């Protein structure tokens, strides 16, 4: 059985104080939830959220990482630094990183390996843009991104991955893929993983991301291949994020 994983990606939102207050509130709203919960604050708030989440059911994730352990890489943060602060998860290859910061399939693969090397779990984002979807290229795009991200990983590592299928046109737009469309693409991604790593495909958790909210969470989570959600906008308010957690826990 794959356990549902609901992760909040705060992007460039929240000061340390706001992040700590949110974490304390969520901890009481989501106590005893039947799903795994992850918060991914900005780097500056990781330590504060780690402290506030201590002893709760909330795990910590980062939004990005650099693949070298240390060195002259101004502005970057390494996997050992994230591990030390308490991260268990690291988002890699978010479409905003790909679009605005030059992330490529090759750098995604390097980052995935760095995250595993330091005992954390990568949350690898894949997904097509609107023109790609309209051109009928969704499967081709998610296959290429998935194959590149997993390059050089053994089957055991693949089994431990989290993948987030995030159609770019659904991120922050209020447009959600229908549960059936999301299921179809996610099942396709699982099939690609089966080709690459055999039965590990049954263990890898694949989230959906793109305008998930309390109202559509249960429908998405009840699909057989959807194992959780990566949530942007609706993870910024404790009530709405807790609502998604609660709805998902009913499935
Ligand atoms: C995201 O950025 O990963 C995301 C899914 O955002 P939103 O929920 O706001 O669409």
Brief characterization of the structure:
The protein is α/β, with parallel strands linked by helices. Helix content is 44%, strand content 15%. An eight-stranded parallel β-barrel has the order 1-2-3-4-5-6-7-8, surrounded by six helices.
List keywords for this structure.
single chain; 251 residues; alpha/beta; TIM Barrel; eight-stranded parallel barrel; 15% strand; globular; binds phosphoenolpyruvate
Describe the structure.
- There is one protein chain.
- The chain is of the alpha/beta class and 251 residues long.
- The chain has one domain (5-249): TIM Barrel (Alpha-Beta Barrel).
- Helices cover 44% and strands 15% of the residues.
- The protein has helices at 16-29, 46-53, 79-85, 95-100, 105-117, 130-134, 138-150, 155-160, 179-197, 214-221, 238-249; strands at residues 5-9, 36-40, 58-62, 89-92, 121-126, 162-165, 205-209, 228-231.
- It has an eight-stranded parallel beta barrel with strand order 1-2-3-4-5-6-7-8, surrounded by six helices.
- Strand 6 (162-165), helix 9 and strand 7 (205-209) form a beta-alpha-beta unit.
- The longest helix has 19 residues, at 179-197.
- The mean pLDDT is 97.
- Bound molecules: phosphoenolpyruvate.
- Residues 9, 166, 171-172, 209-212, 230-234 line the site of phosphoenolpyruvate (PEP).
- Phosphoenolpyruvate is lined by residues 9, 166, 171-172, 209-212, 230-234.
């Amino acid at each position: 059985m794959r356990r549902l994983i609901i992760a909040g990606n705060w992007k460039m939102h929240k000061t340390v104080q706001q992040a700590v207050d949110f974490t304390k509130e969520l901890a009481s709203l989501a106590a005893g939830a039947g799903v795994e919960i992850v918060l991914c604050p900005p780097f500056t708030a990781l330590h504060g959220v780690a402290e506030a989440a201590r002893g709760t059911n909330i795990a910590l994730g980062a939004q990005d990482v650099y693949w070298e352990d240390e060195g002259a890489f101004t502005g970057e943060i390494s996997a050992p630094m994230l591990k030390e602060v308490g991260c268990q998860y690291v988002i890699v290859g978010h479409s905003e990183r790909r679009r605005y910061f030059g992330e490529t399939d090759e750098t995604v693969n390097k980052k995935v390996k760095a995250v595993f090397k330091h005992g954390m779990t990568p949350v690898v984002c894949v997904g097509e843009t609107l023109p790609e979807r309209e051109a009928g290229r969704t499967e081709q795009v998610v296959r290429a991104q998935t194959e590149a991200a997993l390059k050089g990983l053994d089957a055991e590592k693949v089994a431990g991955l989290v993948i987030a299928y995030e159609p770019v046109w659904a991120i922050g737009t209020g447009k959600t893929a229908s549960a059936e469309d999301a299921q179809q693409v996610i099942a396709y991604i699982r099939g690609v993983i089966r080709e690459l790593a055999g039965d590990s495909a049954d263990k890898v958790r694949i989230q959906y991301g793109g305008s998930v909210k309390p109202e559509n969470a249960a429908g998405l989570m009840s699909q057989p291949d959807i194992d959780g959600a990566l949530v942007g906008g609706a993870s910024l308010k404790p009530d709405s994020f807790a609502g998604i957690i609660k709805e998902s826990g009913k499935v």
